[in-house]
């Protein structure tokens, strides 16, 4: 798949670290213009600085469907080439028994791991269908294939991603657009760290004057789920993942501002406040 989209634009959420960062770096080395997003502004800035080619960086909370829609519009305006791939990769994890689970924690996890995938898919799908080309890649987990003790909420969300993407795949037949589910195994990334980072829930528009930018409450971080050689790609045997290749005309505009050297759409200078949550049932992350 990476060879098929090499040199073509891709969007990656959860790109501040882990597999999201690795995906961005790999595609950038292959000549692809890369759009990266994450709620962790500091990590996102580090990822952007490590990329070679054109990059659009955007602080984004994938739970906010309206802001994800605005993000998709910004990406469309920035690109001069058809969008090749959307990687809905942002995710978090908790670990506790059902008996000791906290409903608020489960809702937080589900909002990111499932609804974040749905929001990203809905925001970019019209563009992909319109151009009759592209692929949506949704990150599930091996925990989306079987139930694991002390991971009921995580498994439920990843099973939901799998079901959502399987249904979407059938709906997209004949459109030129593919949908793929990835089921990674356990790989050590930031998702195994028991920490929640706070950042702006609604990042300001890059065109909004500083004096009029709204403030907002802190929210937990969206951390990418890892993938690797053990990843399982789920697709229908009767549905090809090949997409129609568009003509390569034009080049994406550079996201680097000539006056300041800042990357367009990037708020990587905003440092999130990190703290460990204190709850009746302490949050602990898992490795898959």
From TrEMBL:
Q: Which family does it belong to?
A: Belongs to the short-chain dehydrogenases/reductases (SDR) family.
Write out the ranges of the annotated region (Disordered).
Answer: 199-288
Does RNA-binding count among this protein's keywords?
Answer: no
Entry's Gene Ontology molecular function annotations: oxidoreductase activity
What keywords appear on the UniProt entry?
A: Oxidoreductase
- Protein name as annotated: NADP-dependent 3-hydroxy acid dehydrogenase YdfG
Matches recorded under InterPro entries: KR_dom, NAD(P)-bd_dom_sf, Sc_DH/Rdtase_CS, SDR_fam
Q: Does the keyword Oxidoreductase apply?
A: yes
All copies of the Ketoreductase domain together span 8-190
Q: Which Pfam families match?
A: adh_short
């Amino acid at each position: 798949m990476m060879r098929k989209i090499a040199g073509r634009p891709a969007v990656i959420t959860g790109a501040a670290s882990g597999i999201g960062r690795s995906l961005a770096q790999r595609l950038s080395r292959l000549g692809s213009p890369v759009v990266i997003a994450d709620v962790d502004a500091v990590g996102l800035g580090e990822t952007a600085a490590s990329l070679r080619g054109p990059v659009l960086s955007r602080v984004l909370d994938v739970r906010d469907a309206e802001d994800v829609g605005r993000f998709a519009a910004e990406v469309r305006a920035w690109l001069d080439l058809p969008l090749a791939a959307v990687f809905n990769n942002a995710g978090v994890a908790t670990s506790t028994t059902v008996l000791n689970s906290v409903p608020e924690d489960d809702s937080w996890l589900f909002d990111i791991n499932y609804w974040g995938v749905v929001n990203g898919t809905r925001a970019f799908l019209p563009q992909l269908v319109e151009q009759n080309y592209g692929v949506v890649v949704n990150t599930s987990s091996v925990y989306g294939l079987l139930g694991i003790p002390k991971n009921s909420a995580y498994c439920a969300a990843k099973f939901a991603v799998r079901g959502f993407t399987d249904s979407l795949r059938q709906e997209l037949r004949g459109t030129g657009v593919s949908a793929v589910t990835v089921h990674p195994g356990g790989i050590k990334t930031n998702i195994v760290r028991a920490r929640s980072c706070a950042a702006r829930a609604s990042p300001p528009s890059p065109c909004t004057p500083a004096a009029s930018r709204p403030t907002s409450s802190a929210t937990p971080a969206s951390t990418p789920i890892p993938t690797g050689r053990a990843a399982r790609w789920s697709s229908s045997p009767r549905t090809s993942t090949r997409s129609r290749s568009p003509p390569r005309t034009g080049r994406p505009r550079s996201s680097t501002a000539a006056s300041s050297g800042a990357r367009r759409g990037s708020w990587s200078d905003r440092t999130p406040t990190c703290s460990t949550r204190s709850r009746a049932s302490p949050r602990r992350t898992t490795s898959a």
